[in-house]
Design goal:
The chain is of the alpha+beta class and 694 residues long. It is built from twelve helices and 45 strands.
Length: 694
């Protein structure tokens, strides 16, 4: 199927087509720019030419034209000519929820679900069903704002002038995507008599989408093909979400399981009620500020009535972290929380914005307007987004860069030329960062397996099933490999046989750091653990106020680690005693770097922060345009770090002043690594870059 680009260019004469973004069963999406306005857009071209497809495409344009909601994709224009039709929409360059599979926290997933639910509630109020809610149709704009897209199979009463366009999909035919479709949608494929799809069908698909985002699996086994899947949906209950994610708060699990009931009558009355129940359960489990902590912008909460949600606040069991100074605006925030709960907090946070002053003693610098551009030595494309951080290994002059990709592949790249030396396929996205020791590459994957690969020739030395997705990066300690999954594990470096598992630890995405026989690692159960590397015995633990996804650094007997509660912790490596904590004002998922008397780390507010290692007092702060998940790298007297603003930033270590930067094609969640005075870093657009430093 080939689009006739010439006809499309004639139809869209006032737009410049910039390249194909993707294609589906009856549409091709092009990146384009309006010549006079300079506005970047997405142009969806109809490729199939049957009468049914043409009617469906026109219906999509009419549906979108009547919808006005901050979480529904905006349509700008629709055009028709003989043999070509085109829909002009806002450009959504932040990818899809499908792209971010396995990379989002519980708070982020639930908040994205609330945004999508608010959009669907608005759609239902307009008399429209979406019918194809799935991760690929929940998208993000360049700033990370959520949009529900692709109304090509929408049904219901769609107003068009003074006429009504009927449902363009015939009753008795399957509509949607089988993996996420409700049992009543699947019934058509089997010729069964079930209720017609209604609002409860979109609710089911949204719940299935959240289920997959939370567990990496679908509610039903997909084996046997579409008909077998449809039959299971109509005859078998879903697998309880707690079976796949045992640490899921029971209240949240109960809400999602109810929205996935086989009978539409057993689900929530509306998607709005589903959202209210989900928000309340999450507030009960995670405390009143979970939406703010998520970093996801909910632009419309009125339809979900978040003020109805309880506002119980969880408190840490140990280690009282320091709190930010409360000025008048922060006091107003507290009053609003008491008065109207979560919704008040969202309003106050939005009003406060960047007005909050930095803590006394810190030098705060805005992003540089015209920093120097870093030279690019080479750039290599993988087949999907890259969250893994590159690792360099090999003899001098024969170095290779090893990195994982969401295309389920481990890549080894020639460090000098950027050419691919070898690849190894896995059965899941590779977000773990490889560890290289000698000729051994140790890396985990979301398929739950830990592998040892020969750096020289890509031969598999051993392949061990851990049984739980591995996002944590392995740490090699002499003849032992430590890695996090549902617990902290130790494996024999030579054979891959398991030596021990620290079952007292919770789920781990943090990567362990080791010194003097003690491994320190953060956990999703709000705890930092100290574990004996010989036995797996938990020697000490320290409770924090929220999940710990940052990886620790150990220096001078002190382990320093960030928490999603917004605090940076300095912990005695041997005893677990808290030396100091510093409130950085936003979640810390970045892992700290230490140089001299400074510790440097990124935050979800977009800041790169330097603190004094002795007491956590502020030294300097540089603000980027988006959150910083990448971990800083210190090279000489400079700090290099990536940001979700698509840039790799270089700043002066002593002052934090910006020195240079490099713009990539997507957010930079990967952390840079040094290579002969250069740095290598990956970006969300799937590319690996080798960059020169000033």
């Amino acid at each position: 199927m080939t689009a006739d680009r010439t006809r499309l260019e004639e139809l869209m004469a006032d737009y410049d087509l910039e390249g194909e973004l993707g294609r589906g069963s009856f549409g091709v999406v092009w990146a384009a720019r309006h010549r006079q306005l300079g506005r970047a857009v997405a142009v969806k071209e109809l490729v199939a030419t049957t009468d049914a497809d043409q009617a469906r495409f026109r219906c999509e344009a009419q549906v979108l034209a009547q919808l006005r909601h901050p979480h529904v994709v905006t349509v700008y224009d629709y055009r028709e000519a003989p043999h070509v039709r085109a829909l002009v929409m806002e450009a959504l360059t932040g990818g899809t929820l499908e792209d971010r599979q396995g990379a989002l926290s519980l708070e982020e997933i639930v908040t994205v679900g609330l945004a999508a639910g608010a959009a669907l509630h608005h759609v239902h109020e307009a008399g429209v069903l979406h019918r194809d809610v799935k991760p690929a149709n929940v998208m993000f704009d360049a700033h990370g704002h959520v949009r529900v897209t692709d109304f090509g199979v929408a049904g219901g009463a769609v107003l068009s002038g003074d006429a009504t366009t009927a449902d363009v999909t015939l009753a008795g035919t399957f509509v949607g995507t089988p993996s996420y479709a409700s049992p009543e949608q699947c019934a058509a494929a089997l010729g069964a008599h079930w209720p017609e799809p209604a609002e409860a069908s979109d609710q089911y698909a949204l719940a299935a989408t959240l289920y997959e985002a939370l567990t990496g699996e679908l509610p039903h086994d997909r084996s046997g093909g579409i008909l077998a899947l449809c039959n299971r949906k109509m005859t078998e209950p879903v697998r309880p979400i707690s079976r796949l994610r045992p640490n899921m708060p029971p209240g949240i699990a109960k809400v999602i399981d109810r929205a996935l009931e086989r009978s539409p009558a057993d689900r929530y009355r509306t998607v709005e009620d589903f959202g209210v129940a989900l928000a309340a359960a999450t507030t009960d489990a995670l405390g009143a500020e979970w939406i703010r902590r998520s970093g996801v912008d909910l632009e419309d909460t009125s339809s979900l009535r978040l003020h109805d949600a309880p506002t119980t606040t969880a408190s840490p069991a140990q280690a009282t972290p320091s709190r930010r100074r409360r000025g008048p605006l922060m006091a107003l925030t507290a009053l609003l929380v008491v008065a109207v709960g979560v919704a008040g907090l969202l309003v106050a946070d939005r009003l406060r914005g960047d007005q909050s002053a930095p803590e006394e003693g810190a030098t705060t610098l805005p992003p540089a307007s015209t920093p120097a551009d870093l030279p690019q030595r080479w750039s290599m494309a993988t087949g999907a987004s890259v969250f893994s951080s590159p690792t360099v290994g090999g003899a001098p002059g024969e170095e290779r860069v090893v990195v994982g990709s969401d295309d389920a592949t481990v890549y080894a790249i020639d460090a000098d030329s950027g050419a691919i030396a070898w690849t190894v396929d896995t059965d899941g996205p590779v977000r773990s960062s490889p560890a290289v020791t000698g000729d051994d590459v140790i890396v985990g994957a979301n398929d739950g397996r830990l592998r040892s690969i020969a750096l020289s020739d890509a031969s598999i030395r051993w392949d061990t099933r851990v049984g739980f997705e591995i996002v944590s990066s392995p740490q090699v300690v002499e003849d032992e490999v430590l890695v996090g999954a549902d617990h902290l594990y130790a494996y024999d470096l030579a054979t891959g046989s398991r030596r021990w598992v620290a079952e007292e630890t919770g789920p781990i995405v943090s990567s362990p750091a080791v010194a003097d026989g003690v491994a320190v690692v953060g956990s999703e159960d709000h705890t930092v653990y100290g574990v004996d590397v010989d036995s797996g015995e938990v020697l000490w633990l320290l409770r924090t106020g929220d999940r710990v996804q940052s990886s620790p650094v150990i220096t001078g007997g002190i382990a320093i680690i960030g928490g999603t509660d917004g605090n940076l912790y300095a912990i005695d490596h041997g005893t677990g005693e808290l030396r100091w904590s510093a409130d950085l004002g936003a979640a810390v998922k970045s892992s700290p770097a230490v140089a001299g008397n400074l510790v440097v780390v990124g935050t979800d507010s977009g800041s790169v922060v330097a603190r004094d290692i002795a007491d956590g007092s502020p030294v300097w702060e540089l603000r980027t345009a988006d959150r910083v998940d990448s971990s800083p790298l210190v090279v000489g007297d400079q700090v290099v770090v990536g940001s979700n603003d698509r840039f790799v930033h270089v700043m002066d270590l002593a002052s934090g002043r910006p020195v240079a930067r490099f713009e990539t094609g997507g957010p930079v969640l990967s952390s840079p690594t040094e290579l002969d005075g250069d740095v290598v870093v990956a970006s969300y657009d799937g590319r690996i870059h080798r960059l020169g430093l000033p």
